[in-house]
Amino acid sequence: AKKLGYNYVLEYEPNMAKRLLTTSAMRSNLQEAIDNNELELHYQPIVRSNDQQTIQVEALIRWPQSDGSLIAPDDFIPVAEMTGQIIPLSEWVFKRACEDAVKLQEREPKLRMSVNISALHFNRANFVDFVLNTLAETGCRGTWIELELTESILLEGSQYAIERLQTLRKHGLSIALDDFGTGFSSLSYLKRLPLDVVKIDRSFIAGIRHHKGDRVLIESVIKIAQSLDFAVLAEGIETPQQAEFVTELGCNYLQGYYFGRPMPLKNL
Ligand code: C2E
Ligand code: CA
Ligand code: CA
Ligand code: CA
């Protein structure tokens, strides 16, 4: 069963009719949130490993509740993908991220923006047009934006996906492969993808302090990414030891609670 949101867990019962009801309750609540512009983007810093300077932020969606709590994306993105609401949601995210990317250009240093893209959105026929139109509308340059995609998106789309990525890169956008190491793509396939950076999933980071096996594993994941000539970002860095360890292994960028949690734009 899908994990449902904070407010919905209370209603959960291992009963199919009930579960459908809660999904449909979430669907209409989510629709209200979209219509009333209640969703928010929070931004998490991404630092360069050599000087730990923040150079980029990742946009992460948040759904504030009337009691002050937040529903996390893992609890509603899957529902939105099931109901089709992911398309307006994802369009809203991209537009807001572009607007905020423009604001971040006034800062010193200027910060680039990473945006998570759902497979369903990426695979829509008009995705590239949507992106280019939104950039024009908001006055955002392509070079200020990085799209984060997962392996499954790229596998589903094959040659089509590759052509889209090439078009987007021609317009200055960069492409990150999210959650690297958790999928099962062949190396020869990954080699063909026009990517700029791979983001090593945080599950590889968690155990490196205590478990030799985990250290060996992350070393080989980093080596694979480097051998494919991609820049490497390590996610989920929570301690200075983890930052030092992956920096020594050659990671170019770092992201995690140690450097900053996701926060509203005004707190950045
Ligand atoms: P992701 O893209 O892999 O995002 C990283 C997640 O790891 C975020 O969770 C972030 O808050 C969390 N994180 C960052 N640093 C640390 C750390 O040091 N330790 C730990 N334990 N966690 C850390 P979040 O914001 O709950 O997002 C979860 C997932 O939801 C994201 O995973 C992404 O797949 C999806 N998501 C978030 N925002 C969007 C969005 O705007 N659009 C789409 N399509 N998906 C989104
Ligand atoms: Ca991401
Ligand atoms: Ca990730
Ligand atoms: Ca993830």
Q: Give the biggest beta sheet.
A: 8 strands, mixed, barrel
If you compute it from the alpha carbons, what radius of gyration comes out, rounded to the nearest whole angstrom?
19 Å
* Overall shape: globular
Major sheet: arrangement of strands: 1-2-4-5-6-7-8-9
By DSSP, the count of extended strands is: 9
Helix-strand pattern, N to C? HHEEEHHEHHEHEHEHEHE
Poorly predicted regions = 1-13
Describe the structure.
By secondary structure, the chain is α/β, with parallel strands linked by helices. It has ten helices and nine strands. An eight-stranded mixed barrel has the order 1-2-4-5-6-7-8-9, surrounded by four helices. Strand 2 and strand 3 form a beta hairpin. Helix 2 crosses helix 3 and helix 4 runs parallel beside helix 6. The two termini are 36 Å apart. Bound molecules: ligand C2E and calcium ion (3 copies). Ligand C2E binds at residues 44, 59-61, 72-74, 77, 90, 93, 116, 118, 178-179, 202, 236-238, 256-257, 262. It comes from Pseudidiomarina homiensis. This is Bifunctional diguanylate cyclase/phosphodiesterase. Residues 23-268 form the EAL domain.
